[in-house]
Every structure is written in structure tokens, then in C-alpha cells.
């Protein structure tokens, strides 16, 4: 004999299965392909091939499921929803400067939240528009899935092909625009800086994106930092006279797998490791350019972050202090998605001072002395240098 609660739960599950099935079928019949991007469902699905939906769709009074739909369908979709092609309780559209950004559709106790998914031309990423922010992530494949209920019944839908990577990227995906207004002013006020061939051409962004992908496979988040971060945010590109690339990663993401992977990689070749374990910096060469990979350490005393550098000629140790990294975001560098600190202006102010928005009008910017946040930390002994510099 079944208890009343179990019968009610089974009845609720059956009802919600029917509601979700009706909605998905109606969307498909109407020619509106949607993709499930709901984190709760994706976590469930990623654990086993047949996901039991009971905890997901009966665990709250009103269940909410998150989907996305390509931007090309939204105009027609809004028109058809206004004609009642799906029998729903209520529909609420949201808008941003790009048009309709999403819809909340309510039907029999289920909320279907659909976000607009853009595929910007000449880029390698998607953007999902939410009410308060935009989430960007590298373009990915999708796959079809079937979720089953233990009481019987199933729901078919599409999800990201690598659901765990999708969740990882979603947490780091908030999208920040570079300052196109400052970039335009820079070109207007300092034309002499742009009348010379740049040391790093725009198409190197593609190589930097592949470097990012390599590290992401190890679940490392390589963020733009230093002059590369400044060039992206202030000039929407590379600073013309800079000759190398600056990236940084969190110490908690570090493992020896990084070193072993880069040692074996012919395209992104690790050529030098600087510092002892609490002061690490990596030098990587790719297509004739050096990519610096700094490790971000955390100061438990004052809550700040710091990276390290070593002047081999003088044995000098240097420290760059930063405000605590609050969150990782994303940004577009010449059509390629990069990771950047969310508190980017705070980081740039720490490094370059309050006037980071104007160029350093000299070609002799010295990494060991010109930064506003650099400190001299003494020098290594000759014996320590034997451990602090490793050529590969």
C-alpha cells in the first residue's frame, strides 16, 4: 500500500513530466530549437546516463528550468507566443539594448526560463543574455539526451556535449566589454603610437586563445594580466610596442601536470621556470613570442594577492601586489574569448595608478621599477639561484 505522500509525489511528477514534455514538443513543432542549460539538471545528467528527475522537478513548489535559444529565432518566437501557439499561463519577455534578451514562461507550476544565445560574427564564443549580466563561453557542440523518471516516462532534449566543462565555464563566464570609448580617444590623442607596425599583430590573439584552451583542459584559468590586460581593456587590442604576453593563474589551480604538459608541447614550449615553489613564474615561447605565466598567491595577513618576478642578472626578487581577485570574467580580444579579472579597473589602478587610461609616454617602461605596485624583495643567494632558475 502506498502512502498519500508518495501518491501525491508520483502524481506531481507525472503532471510535471507531462507539462515539460508538452512544452518541449510544442517548441520543436514550432521550429524553435532550445538547449537545456539548467545547472541542476546538467549536474544530475553528468553523473549518470539515466538521470532521475524526481529531485530536480519535484523538490520545490514551483520548479524552474533554464534553456537557451539562438538569437535568430527571437523575433518570430515573440510574435508566435503573442498568438498563443503554446497554451501557457503567462509569458514575460525581457529586453536589453540588443532586443529581446529572454522570456519567462509559466505553465502548470513550471517556469521555463529561456535566454537569448548570440553567436557574434567572426568570434569563437557564444553569449547568453541574462537579466542582469551576459555570460560568454567558447563555442561548443551539443548532444541529445533522454532523462527518465523511475515511475516511467522520459523527456528528450539537447544539452552541451561536455556538461561538466559547460558548468566550469559558466561559473567564469560573466562577459566584460573592453573600453571602446578609451580606445577611440587613445587613437585620436596619440596617433604617433599607432603609426608604427605593432610588435604583436592582431592575429596572435588566435594563438593566445589556443594557449588558453590548452590550460582549460587542465581546468586552469589563464587570465590576462599586466600589459596584456591593459592593452585589452584600454585599447581593445595589444599595446603596439609591447613584445610579450602576460597571463596569470591561481595557485590553487597549479599542479605538476602543468609543467609536464608544457614540457611536451611543441607549440607552447616551456623554456624556463623562475623562482622557488612560493615564487613561481613560467616562461613559455610560442610563434616567436614569450608568454609569461605568473602564479597568483594569496596573502592571508592583509587579504591581498601577489605575483613574483626574478631579475636573473642581479638576482633581485620582485613582488607585485594586487587587490584580492574577486571573480574571473571573460572578454573579447580580437574575436577570441579570454579570461580576465572581474575587478579589472581595480587591478589596473593597482598596477599603473589612477591614470592607467593614458599611455606611458616612454618606450622604457621597466618591469622591475615602473609599476605602481612593484616591491623589491631582496635577492637570492648564489646557492638559491641554482634552484630558482631552471632552463628546459
From TrEMBL:
It is found in: Membrane. It is a single-pass membrane protein. GO terms for cellular component: membrane. Residues 220-264 form the LicD/FKTN/FKRP nucleotidyltransferase domain. InterPro entries: FKTN/MNN4/W02B3.4-1, LicD/FKTN/FKRP_NTP_transf, W02B3_4_N. Residues 32-177 form the W02B3.4-like N-terminal domain. This is Fukutin. Signal peptide: none annotated. The keyword NAD does not apply. The keyword Glycoprotein does not apply. GO terms for biological process: glycoprotein metabolic process. Keywords: Membrane, Transmembrane, Transmembrane helix.
Amino acid at each position: 500500500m502506498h502512502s498519500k505522500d508518495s501518491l501525491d509525489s508520483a502524481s506531481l511528477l507525472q503532471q510535471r513530466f507531462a507539462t515539460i514534455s508538452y512544452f518541449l514538443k510544442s517548441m520543436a513543432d514550432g521550429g524553435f530549437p532550445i538547449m537545456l542549460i539548467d545547472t541542476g539538471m546538467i549536474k544530475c545528467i553528468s553523473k549518470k546516463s539515466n538521470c532521475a528527475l524526481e529531485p530536480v522537478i519535484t523538490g520545490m513548489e514551483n520548479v524552474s528550468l533554464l534553456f537557451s535559444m539562438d538569437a535568430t529565432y527571437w523575433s518570430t518566437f515573440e510574435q508566435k507566443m503573442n498568438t498563443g501557439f503554446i497554451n501557457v499561463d503567462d509569458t514575460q519577455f525581457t529586453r536589453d539594448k540588443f532586443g529581446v534578451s529572454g522570456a519567462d514562461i509559466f505553465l502548470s507550476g513550471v517556469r521555463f526560463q529561456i535566454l537569448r544565445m548570440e553567436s557574434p560574427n567572426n568570434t569563437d564564443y557564444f553569449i547568453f543574455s541574462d537579466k542582469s549580466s551576459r555570460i560568454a563561453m567558447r563555442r561548443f557542440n551539443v548532444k541529445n539526451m533522454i532523462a527518465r523518471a523511475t515511475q516511467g516516462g522520459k523527456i528528450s532534449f539537447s544539452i552541451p556535449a561536455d556538461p561538466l566543462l559547460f558548468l566550469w565555464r559558466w561559473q567564469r563566464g560573466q562577459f566584460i566589454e573592453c573600453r571602446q570609448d578609451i580606445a577611440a580617444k587613445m587613437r585620436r590623442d596619440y596617433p604617433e603610437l599607432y603609426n608604427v607596425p605593432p610588435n604583436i599583430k592582431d592575429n596572435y590573439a588566435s594563438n593566445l586563445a589556443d594557449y588558453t584552451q590548452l590550460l582549460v583542459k587542465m581546468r586552469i584559468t589563464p587570465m590576462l594580466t599586466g600589459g596584456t590586460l591593459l592593452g585589452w581593456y584600454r585599447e581593445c587590442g595589444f599595446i603596439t610596442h609591447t613584445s610579450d604576453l602576460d597571463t596569470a593563474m591561481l595557485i590553487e589551480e597549479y599542479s605538476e601536470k602543468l609543467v609536464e604538459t608544457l614540457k611536451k608541447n611543441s607549440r607552447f614550449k616551456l623554456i624556463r621556470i623562475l623562482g622557488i615553489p612560493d615564487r613561481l613564474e613560467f616562461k613559455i615561447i610560442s610563434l616567436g613570442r614569450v608568454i609569461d605565466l605568473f602564479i597568483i598567491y594569496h596573502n592571508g595577513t592583509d587579504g591581498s594577492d601577489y605575483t613574483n618576478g626574478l631579475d636573473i642578472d642581479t638576482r633581485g626578487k620582485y613582488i607585485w601586489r594586487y587587490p584580492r581577485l574577486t571573480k574571473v570574467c571573460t572578454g573579447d580580444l580580437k574575436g577570441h574569448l579570454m579570461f580576465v579579472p572581474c575587478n579589472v579597473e581595480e587591478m589596473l589602478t593597482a598596477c599603473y595608478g589612477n591614470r592607467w587610461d593614458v599611455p606611458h609616454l616612454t618606450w622604457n617602461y621597466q618591469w622591475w621599477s615602473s609599476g605602481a605596485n612593484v616591491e623589491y624583495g631582496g635577492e637570492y643567494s648564489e646557492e638559491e639561484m641554482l634552484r630558482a632558475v631552471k632552463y628546459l
